[in-house]
Here is the input.
Amino acid sequence: MPQSDWVWFFDLDNTLHDASARIFRKLDGTITAFMCERLGLDAASADALRVDYWQRYGATLSGLVRHHGIKVEHYVSATHAFIHEGAVSDWVMVTRGLARALAVLPGRKILLTNAPAPYALRVLAALALSRAFERVIAIEAMHVHGALRPKPSRTLLRVAAADVGVRARNAILVEDSLANLKAARAIGWRTVFVSGFLRPSPKVRIYRPSFVDLQVKSVAQLALRYRGLS
Ligand SMILES: [Mg+2]
Here is the structure.
């Protein structure tokens, strides 16, 4: 099939930039503080519940909506507002040549992130990628039949592909999350595992998971090796 028919779905955090270094540490704190206040928990319990929801649902917000009736907009403004304060360069680590590396890839590019839209747009701007994606699908747009269904929901992936107008065999998910890649493969997408920003770094991976078509350290490396996907 022609590569020009491909549609790339890119994750944001720890795929396009190193979120572990600063942003995730800050977010862990703002989310835990929000949960303490809204759920009346002490810090240790809130922290444990935050991690539990993130692992169970792919996004802490899903658990907060489902089990505590938290409103998406309240969560977003309370936890992600810091990205609009001060210099965004305090938070985002910029990799040089990222826009060029993305431009090398044939086909259309969509951003598919479990993060909120205002945050995603701000980080994209900091990375000089505001025009790199034809569409940004953020967590506010991940409602399926009235329920919040972030990645790794297969239903969400199917709906996103239908919205964008791509067949599963032409869709490619580029991600640092193995759970999300596994879901994408289960519905017939191709998968690229970006492992360079993960901590601890999974350097020694003797067996690449069967649902990973290509493993790269970065998007720059993907620009050199994407032909291996066809
Ligand atoms: Mg990620």
User: Anything to note?
Assistant: The mean pLDDT is 93. The chain has two domains: 3-18+95-229, 23-88. Strands lie at 7-10, 108-112, 135-137, 143-144, 147-148, 171-175, 190-194, 214-216.
